[in-house]
Amino acid sequence: MKKYQLYTTMGAGFESVVAKELQSLGYETSTENGRVFFKGDQSDIVKTNLWLRTADRVKILLKEFKATDFDTLYNQVYDIDWAELLPVDAKFPVQGRSVRSKLHSEPGIQSIVKKAIVNKMSDQYHRRGFLPETGSEYPLDIHIYKDLARISLDTTGASLFKRGYRIEHGGAPLKENFAASLIKLTPYDGTHPLIDPMTGSGTLAIEAALIGRNIAPGTWRKFAFDDFDWFDPDLHDDLLEQAKSEVRTLDQPIWACDIDQSILEIAKLNANNAGVLQNIYFKQVAVKDFATDLENGVIIANPPYGKRLKEKKTAEELYVQMGEALSKYDDFSQYYLVGDPEFEQFFGKTATKKRKLFNGNLRVDFYQYWAKKK
User: Which DSSP category does 277 fall into?
Assistant: First the structure.
């Protein structure tokens, strides 16, 4: 089976997390900002889309070349054997991005790439005029950074964070792959308890249950490659069945608590859709009243950030309550994603380690308090 140069994209700051995940799946990787590269065939495209918890997309790198003028860009794209990749009726949207390059007009770049592909396919398929673009979608991407152009085919479709289990959600939930990445930064593997004392719509607890039970996060969805006419149609079904056979039981409890019963009902619905409702103990409780007799686990939370002035005061009071209620459980590793640089002051304890991240466009810190085991 043909081998491809593949790469994954991910949120800023999670390159090492994705690389580690790919390596655990058996791939040799190389990393640059926003991308982790690896090689694989069609079965690897299916496997990585099914199993990657922390990435955004899996793409086939079709070609890379230096491009400082539109003629070069056109010629290099035209030279690709597009008939091997795209049927005559293919729908092929082209997305473009340019950073610190001589070719900086993104609409112009997209237009030239599209024109080169249309002209090449018209020649290859002996067509005159427009191509119909009424068939399956083949999403293409042209990215130029410091004059190095890369053109790629997206095998994923809707981003990998769209697992398919979250039908309802509360205010501003974490994306599923962001939540999974946070859990991957903790020691959690399902062999000890996990507690989310401010669970909201339940994403952290659900992603933890999927990790603990070894459930592939792509179990419930389809991918762009499912509609590629040259892609082996049996691979997805075969690898999905194999993935389902590798699901395991969860021996240690996951607690998901929140002060708001209505949002807990949403979290339960999401957990049910993900097949892990029986693995999560949901409880309505304010963080100031939280108590547990569990030991040697992980506490992880994404408390409200309090960006508006009135909310900021409420958030700071909550951080004080968190410190009073949770910091005494020092046999738990504790992890808090917070947008307030003064969080430690209110929590009452200096973090063992801090990691700078971006939740969307919002700069946040992941405060890590390492455990003292009993």
Answer: G
Closest CA to 27 of 12, 14, 45, 1: 45
User: Could you give the CA distance from residue 12 to residue 30 in angstroms, rounded to a whole number?
Assistant: 16
- Residue-wise pLDDT for 35-62, tens only, equals 999 999 999 999 999 999 999 999 999 9
Residues in the chain: 374
Query: For residue 77, what are its two tokens?
Result: 């794209």
Sign, CA dihedral 337-340-346-352, equals: positive
Given a contact cutoff of 8 angstroms between Cβ atoms, the answer to whether 114 and 120 are in contact is no
Backbone angles phi, psi at 224, to 5 degrees: -55, -40
**Which tokens belong to 86?**
């795209």
Q: What share of the chain is helix, strand, coil (3-state, %, to 5)?
A: 35, 20, 45
d(CA 43, CA 242): 12
- Reported as type and span, the H/E element at residue 374 is none
Q: Which helix (H) or strand (E) holds 256?
A: strand 254-258
Specify which residues 141 forms β-bridges with: 95, 152
Sheet order of strands, 94-99 included: 30-32, 35-40, 4-9, 57-66, 148-154, 140-145, 94-99
What would the pLDDT profile of 180-208 be if each residue is shown by its tens digit?
A: 999 999 999 999 999 999 999 999 999 99
